[in-house]
Amino acid sequence: MRFPRLVLALALSLASAFAAPADPLVEVVRTVAEGRGETIEADAPLASAPASPEPNNLSVLRPLYAAEGNPYLARLVAGARAYLARPEAAADWPMVTPQNVAGYFVLQASNDRDTRGTAARLDALLWLFAHPSSPLRHDPAVLAFFLRRAHAYVEGIELTSVDGKLKAGQILLDDFAIAPASGALREFAALYPGLLTPAQRARWDRALRLAADTMMGKADGRTGNYANIDLALSVQLLNFGLHLNDEKLLARSRELLHAQAANILPDGGTHYIWSQNESTGYHDVVAQFIARSYEITGDEAAVAMLRRFEWFGPVTVGRQGEYWTAPSWKHTWNGGDFATGGEPVIAITGNPYVRGMLVPPAPDAPLRGWEQARNAVSWWRPDVPARPLPDNYTLLDRNIAGPRAWYRSFNYAATLRDIALAEPGHATLVGAQVLGPDLGRGVLLMTVAPRV
Description:
Blueprint: H1 2-18, H2 24-35, H3 71-84, H4 115-130, H5 140-162, H6 175-191, H7 198-219, H8 227-244, H9 247-259, H10 280-297, H11 300-308, H12 312-317, H13 343-349, H14 352-357, E1 393-397, E2 402-407, E3 410-415, E4 429-434
Antiparallel strand pairs: 1-2, 2-3, 3-4
Helix pairs in contact: 2-5, 4-5, 4-6, 5-7, 6-8, 7-8, 8-9, 8-10, 10-11
């Protein structure tokens, strides 16, 4: 009677040989959860197959103008590979608990848990994991790094709210952190619902509702006259509204976006706040938020605003940003910046002067800040020629309501904007600077800034 046993053994062997292999991405979900002290039920419905949501709601799937030769794609991949090569243990990103929530995240620091950096890396890692042009698409290591950070961010929001310390604009809800973080969380949940267990999905829903309610409170009463903050809020509320299917949030997001059209100055700057001049250090982030709104919604009003940014770089920035025409408390953010509006402005306008000003990262560029390439990768166009800025000229810079001149290394400008007396800032200020021989960043600036 050994024959039946032999048949049974052979059948089991064949069944094992032809059984479907374990899904590597589902295994990552389980491993990450277990490493963070979370138990996943054996029957939890997990699957790595992506969903098919509305494509215009997913910025992460925006097609590239070109993948071949794309310097931002190369930078993203090189930076991510170096980042993923660092030793990382599950203990580096434990589950957030009432005992460790205080101090788990900080706003800005050199470690890996600063919220702005974490949010930007979530955004970049998701793009690398999901985009069809990414060489790291569906890479298990990318997923593991993403999930550790995403779950911790969500848990941090939920637990911080318990003792009333979840504040708008602070730490996890810092505007420059929660704007990209909300997008990464929403788009991952929409595109890969099978890589979240029901318990995890419920936790993400609760956290995003808490964040939405808190940031909606901050948005209450705002009229769009604080460009960078109001646009950050617009992006946040857009992501929250889409995830939670909340039309009130979506409507407020649209209002804050559309209100920015009134802030744009004749030569492409924006009022930093109220009636003041642009703060050059914030110009690119303003353009970035407008571009992200367009990537998600396809709202042509966003494209129209970016088109109006066209001449800010050539007219106002020139070879080097300066200090003295900025709002008085933003001098530190103005002098070394080389703002142009970025790749979105070049893609929309095809302006060769802006292309000549904005040099994409070289393949051997330092990898610090590699994650920021995510904001440019889908906008880079290989067909826009570069043209150098002219020299030896004086013009009327309508962004500062005054003259601006460049004569090789010498630059001067005078802002004559009539700023309301109730506002802090400079109403009338002139200045000059002399650049070093290479006209590059980091040169010594000599500034003369008397009030007139």
